[in-house]
Specification:
Distance between the termini: 49 Å
Number of domains: 3
Largest sheet: 5 strands, mixed
InterPro entries: HAMP_dom, HATPase_C_sf, HATPase_dom, His_kinase_dom, HisK_dim/P_dom, HisK_dim/P_sf, Sig_transdc_His_kin-like_C
Shape: rod-shaped
Strand content: 15-25%
GO molecular function: ATP binding; phosphorelay sensor kinase activity
Enzyme class: transferase
Order of helices and strands: HHEEEHEEHHHEHEEHEEHHEE
Organism: Pararhodobacter oceanensis
Subcellular location: Membrane
């Protein structure tokens, strides 16, 4: 529908506002027209009275009747030097219903009387007082019928309304054409550019080239251009990453099978009685285990197959103790085994997916343990938890060396946020996704030379 478009609504509003303005102007125009109409009758009556006075009153009844007919009044009363004299007279068809004094009347009265004159009844007679030609020193009173005034006012009002309608239509059409050229056409161009770009966002030729002369539209076109350029670049990068991810997934799959075979062989080597082999076997097994975990994490991230959490009620302390026991075993061969501190109330119950939460905590604690072991110094990791009004908070605090700047800047970015050499950063990305799946958040609270602290917030009810 035309009036649902921007151009149609603008055209309609222009017509309405112009007509409204003309209607507001119509009332003063009608008041002014009525005043001039009555003053004209007074001037004619004054001329008739002066003609009568100049002839010493020797005019006939027929001429007097013609003078009154020309003036459009029933009688004329002349006031001069405080003397009131009936100069010309004819039969009055009815009583006088109102008297109007045109000597400097208030504007409000003019507006009110002008509108009221349009709705007078037939046979109404009014008296008008005024001094149209003040130099004559005369004050006139005339009586007259309201029908001619009423008919003239309606004819004048209709002319004004028709003229207003023509002016409003011409104005609206000119504004419509101007808006079409200056606003609607550039907006349509932006819309067409967006539609064309949506069909092939990788095609740089479809990016809009700003050329509008209107400041706001130019800014909109420039913003759209920047957005399209960024999106095209992002799509290209994602396409390359997808291709790279496919290649990495295939490599990881094959490498995992190779490493599994190597792990089996290494398990047999561990039974050797050679002291050198005995010392080297655990390191070899740890390296193979880390390589297998890396391959599995890469494959899991690429598939994005983590199911939604299966919520159940469980004691958090039991889960934390199981996770800590596994990390203690993994780090038993370190020069300075890491000390683990658990500060979780035995009564603290969570409604969450225990397997997924175990993966999250295990990832945070493993990263902290490996960072501390890499320094060759002693250290500790504390896992504490508290229940709040809206959810539960779990904190993992270590005394390690802190995260390097590059890791902090890309902490939750895949393949960019690794904190240790050879790491991919997938662990934290997956952990953050698992926590978000519970409606919670995983944040880095602090990091520095004194250690690192991560905070997990989980809402009540999972």
């Amino acid at each position: 529908m035309f009036f649902r478009t921007l151009s149609g609504r603008f055209l309609l509003l222009t017509l309405v506002f112009v007509l409204l303005a003309e209607v507001l102007v119509l009332a003063p125009s009608i008041a002014r027209f009525r005043e001039e109409y009555l003053l004209t009758r007074l001037e004619r009556a004054q001329i008739a009275s002066l003609a009568l006075l100049a002839s010493d009153g020797t005019i006939g009844d027929k001429l007097a009747e013609e003078l009154l007919l020309t003036a459009g009044v029933f009688n004329v009363v002349l006031r001069r030097d405080a003397i009131r004299e009936l100069v010309l007279a004819s039969p009055v068809p009815g009583p006088i219903s109102a008297t109007y004094d045109l000597r400097a009347p208030p504007t409000v009265e003019l507006l009110r009387d002008g509108l009221a004159a349009m709705f007078t009844e037939d046979g109404t007679v009014i008296r008008v007082i005024g001094d149209p030609v003040q130099e004559a020193g005369l004050l006139l009173e005339v009586t007259m019928a309201t029908e001619p005034l009423r008919d003239s006012l309606w004819a004048y009002a209709l002319r004004i309304l028709w003229l207003s309608l023509l002016i409003s239509m011409a104005t609206a059409m000119l504004l419509f054409l101007a808006v079409q050229r200056l606003i609607v056409s550039p907006i349509r161009r932006v819309i067409d550019s967006m539609a064309a770009y949506a069909k092939a966002p990788e095609d740089a030729r479809r990016i809009i080239a700003p050329d509008s002369r209107v400041t706001e539209l130019r800014e909109a076109e420039e913003a759209l251009q920047h957005m399209q350029e960024d999106l095209t670049q992002a799509l290209r990068q994602k396409e390359r990453l997808a291709q790279l991810g496919g290649a990495v997934a295939r490599i990881s799959h094959d490498l995992r099978n190779i490493l599994s075979t190597a792990t089996l062989v290494a398990d047999r080597i561990e039974n050797s009685k050679d002291p050198a082999v005995i010392r080297a076997a655990p390191k070899l097994l740890n390296s193979l285990s880390r390589a297998v975990n890396l391959c599995e994490s890469t494959l899991a991230f690429g598939k994005a197959e983590d199911p939604p959490p299966k919520l159940s009620q469980f004691a958090l302390r039991t889960l934390v103790e199981d996770m800590v026991e596994g990390e203690q075993i993994a780090g038993r061969n370190a020069a300075h085994p890491v000390e683990f501190l658990v500060d979780v109330p035995p009564t603290l119950m969570l409604r969450a997916d225990p397997e997924q939460l175990f993966r999250v905590l295990s990832n945070l604690v493993r990263n902290a343990r490996q960072a501390i072991e890499a320094t060759g110094a002693a250290g500790s990791i504390e896992i504490c938890a508290r229940d709040g009004d809206e959810g539960s908070v779990i904190r993992v605090i270590d005394t390690g060396p802190g995260l390097p700047k590059r890791a902090r800047d890309n902490l939750f970015a895949a393949f960019q946020g690794g904190a240790r050499k050879g790491g991919t950063g997938l662990g934290l990305v997956i952990a953050a996704e698992l926590v978000r799946g519970h409606g919670g958040t995983l944040d880095l609270v602090r990091t520095g030379d004194e250690g690192t602290e991560f905070g997990i917030w989980l809402p009540h009810g999972g």
